[in-house]
Amino acid sequence: MNKARVNWHARSHTHKHRAQCVKALISSSEDDGEAGGEAEGDKNQSETTCRKCQEEDDGLPTRKKPKTEEEGPKSRLPLPGCVLAMFPDEVDSQTEDSSLHGGRIRSFKHERGNWASYVYFPYHPEEEFGELLDGILSAAGARGVVLTAQDEFHLSLSQTVVLRHHWIQPFTQSLKSSLTGCKRFVCSAGRLRVYSNAEKTRTFLGMEVSTGHAQLLDLIRTVDRTMTEFRLETFYKDPSFHVSLAWCVGDQTVQMEECMQELQSLVDDHEDRPFVLRLDCSELRCRTGNKTFRFPLES
């Protein structure tokens, strides 16, 4: 018997065993439906027969499964939480909970795709400023006005406006172009003043600018041109440029005015000389959401 005939007999023998496997499985299924546990022996026999077929198949080339026998399409993996957080279906209620933000209330409702934005000069305080501010907060607290120091200090050159996400790049590019040719300068402040927001939901203690007012007005006109281009609100008509030092919830303008003389004396008599806040206006910045854009001014 030649080699081809041997292979043919081997495949024929394997097919017979497969047929036996199918019959055994069908018989096992029928017995399961009629006699329950009595079919266990037949099931074991069919499993033994299947294993035998598998062992005999090991000597033959592996047959590729047709597509109809393959498993169905795999289910998609769930998206990571960090990706889902980028596209929330609705605003997290915690973002609107004022108790989580020291009682502060948003001037406008947070919406997906809206970025709170403003233009400003940063102020980097020195150690002397920190000591003075601690004294001011302590004196105000003794008069019943509980103030919270600002997380960071700056001088605003715009109102807080809302930018749509797709506006950010053209807005900052327009601002950069408008600032071409603007020179850096130094301004100073030393007089305390009380401010409140338009909604009267917060009251601020600020230090008003006394020098550099003309240069700041020139910059306001520059920034306002970009605001107008995007149909956003421009700055106040008669601005009082200042650096906010601390704040409290609600309209406490009257209470703060009553202790202003005492607080101002701490500034005027600080270490035997008046304290002067000096602000280096060399780099304008634009904060939009969690992004900060920097615009160095010319020397």
From TrEMBL:
Gene3D superfamilies: Cyclic phosphodiesterase. It holds the Pfam family HVSL. The keyword Ligase does not apply. The keyword tRNA processing does not apply. It comes from the Eukaryota. The active site is at residues 154, 242. GO terms for cellular component: nucleus. Its EC number is 3.1.4.-. GO terms for molecular function: lyase activity; poly(U)-specific exoribonuclease activity, producing 3' uridine cyclic phosphate ends. Keywords: Hydrolase, Lyase, Nuclease, Nucleus. Residues 1-20, 26-80 are annotated as: Disordered. InterPro entries: Cyclic_Pdiesterase (IPR009097), Usb1 (IPR027521). Residues 40-54 have a biased composition (Basic and acidic residues). It catalyses: a 3'-end uridylyl-adenosine-RNA = a 3'-end 2',3'-cyclophospho-uridine-RNA + adenosine; a 3'-end uridylyl-uridine-RNA = a 3'-end 2',3'-cyclophospho-uridine-RNA + uridine. Residues 29-39 have a biased composition (Acidic residues). HAMAP family: USB1. 3'-5' RNA exonuclease that trims the 3' end of oligo(U) and oligo(A) tracts of the pre-U6 small nuclear RNA (snRNA) molecule, leading to the formation of a mature U6 snRNA 3' end-terminated with a 2',3'-cyclic phosphate. Participates in the U6 snRNA 3' end processing that prevents U6 snRNA degradation. In addition also removes uridines from the 3' end of U6atac snRNA and possibly the vault RNA VTRNA1-1. Phosphodiesterase responsible for the U6 snRNA 3' end processing. Acts as an exoribonuclease (RNase) responsible for trimming the poly(U) tract of the last nucleotides in the pre-U6 snRNA molecule, leading to the formation of mature U6 snRNA. Belongs to the 2H phosphoesterase superfamily. USB1 family. This is U6 snRNA phosphodiesterase. It comes from Oreochromis aureus. The lineage of its organism: Eukaryota, Metazoa, Chordata, Craniata, Vertebrata. The gene is USB1.
